[in-house]
Write a structure and sequence with these properties.
α5 links the parallel β8 and β9. The protein has 288 residues and is an alpha/beta fold. The protein has 2 domains: 80 residues, ACT domain (Alpha-Beta Plaits); 195 residues, Formyl transferase, N-terminal domain (Rossmann fold, 3-Layer(aba) Sandwich). It is built from 7 helices and 13 strands. The chain has a 7-stranded mixed beta sheet, covered by helices on one side. It is 32% helix and 29% strand. The structure holds ligand LMY7XDAE. Ligand LMY7XDAE binds next to β9.
Length: 288
C-alpha cells in the first residue's frame, strides 16, 4: 500500500562491503525510519542495487539534510540514485491504437485504486469515436493521427503533450506505431511497452501469427522499457500461457489478451512503486 508520507530511494553503484550500513546510517542521521529495504549484488557486473522506503520524523526539518547526506555518499560511492517523494502520485500517459483491452484494464485498476497514479491523458492514433464504449471519466483524450509522412509532426505534438502534462511515465498499451530513435531516447526509462509475445521470440507487429505458424505450445507477453531498437528494450515483466494444436490464431489472440493485461499492469505497478532499477540492457525489479 502506498504510504503517502514516505520517500522511495533507488540506487546502484560499484559493489563493496558495508553499503547497506552506509545508506541506512545516512538516512538515520536525517531522522529516517526505514520501512522497506531490498538489495541485490550483480556478481557479473560487480554492481550493487538497493531500494529503500523510509519516512522522516519531521519532513520539513529533515528533508534538506536527508538530500545533503545522500549527495555526500553518492559522490563517495559513485552512486546513481533517485528519491521519489510519495506524497505526489506519478503522472502517466496511456497510448493506444486499435486494440483497447490493455487501456480498459489500466483504467479499471486505476478507478478501483489498485494502481495509485494520476492518468494525465489518453493518446490515440484513432479518433475518440473508436473508443466510445470506454468510460474514460474525466481523463483528457488526445487524437494524434499518424502516417509515414506526418510522423515527425505527430511526434512533436506528442512531445508537447508529454511536457505539458508533466508525465513521469508513457505507457504504450498496444500503441502500434514505432517511436523514432530521437523520441525513444528522450523517454529512456520512462516509457513502457507491452509486446504481445514472449520476447525475444516473435518481434514485430504480428507475433501471434508468427507463433501460430511456428507451432508453439506456449504464448506470452512482455512488458519492457522502450528503446530505439524495436522490441529490444530492458524487460520488466513477462508471462506465458499454454496453447494447443487446436488453437487458431484467433484463440492465440484471445488467450494472449489476458496475459498482456496482467503483465502490463504488473509492470506499471512496479514502476509507480519505484521497484525498477535499470541495469544496463536489463532491469532489477524488487517485487512486493
Ligand atoms: N521505439 C520503439 N517504439 C515502439 C516499440 C519499441 O519497442 N520501440 N514497440 C512498439 C509496439 N510493438 C510491439 O510491441 C510494435 C508496434 C508496431 C510495429 C510495426 O511494425 N508497426 C508498423 C505500422 C503498423 C500499423 O500501422 O499497424 C510501423 O510502425 O511501420 C512493430 C512492433 C510500439 N513502439
Amino acid at each position: 500500500m502506498l504510504n503517502s508520507d514516505s520517500f522511495a530511494l533507488t540506487l546502484s553503484c560499484p559493489n563493496q562491503p558495508g553499503l547497506v550500513s552506509v545508506v541506512s546510517s545516512c538516512l538515520y542521521e536525517a531522522s529516517g525510519n526505514i520501512t522497506e529495504a531490498q538489495q541485490h549484488d550483480d556478481t557479473i557486473t560487480g554492481r550493487f542495487f538497493m531500494r529503500v522506503v523510509f519516512t522522516l520524523q519531521d519532513r520539513a526539518r529533515h528533508k534538506a539534510l536527508m538530500f545533503a547526506n545522500m549527495e555526500k555518499i553518492a559522490k563517495q560511492y559513485q552512486m546513481n540514485w533517485h528519491i521519489t517523494d510519495r506524497t505526489r502520485k506519478k503522472r502517466v500517459l496511456i497510448m493506444v491504437s486499435r486494440f483497447d483491452h490493455c487501456l480498459v484494464d489500466l483504467l479499471y485498476r486505476w478507478r478501483i485504486g489498485e494502481l495509485i497514479m494520476d492518468i494525465a491523458g489518453i493518446i490515440a492514433n484513432h479518433p475518440k469515436e473508436l473508443y466510445a464504449h470506454i468510460d474514460m471519466q474525466e481523463v483528457p483524450f488526445y487524437y494524434l493521427p499518424i502516417t509515414p509522412e506526418t510522423k515527425t509532426t505527430q511526434e512533436e505534438k506528442l512531445q508537447s503533450i508529454i511536457e505539458e502534462t508533466q508525465a513521469d511515465l508513457v505507457i504504450l498499451a498496444r500503441y502500434m506505431q514505432v517511436l523514432s530513435s530521437n523520441l525513444s531516447q528522450k523517454l529512456i526509462g520512462h516509457c513502457i511497452n507491452i509486446h504481445h509475445s514472449f520476447l525475444p521470440g516473435f518481434k514485430g507487429a504480428k507475433p501471434y501469427h508468427q507463433a501460430f505458424e511456428r507451432g508453439v505450445k506456449l504464448i506470452g507477453a512482455t512488458a519492457h522499457f522502450v528503446t530505439s531498437d524495436l522490441d529490444e528494450g530492458p524487460i520488466i515483466e513477462q508471462d506465458v500461457t499454454r496453447v494447443t494444436h487446436s488453437d487458431t490464431p484467433a484463440d492465440f489472440i484471445r488467450k494472449g489478451r489476458d496475459i498482456e493485461r496482467r503483465v502490463l499492469a504488473q509492470a506499471v505497478r512496479d514502476y509507480i512503486q519505484d521497484r525498477i532499477i535499470l541495469n544496463g540492457s536489463k532491469t532489477v525489479v524488487f517485487g512486493d
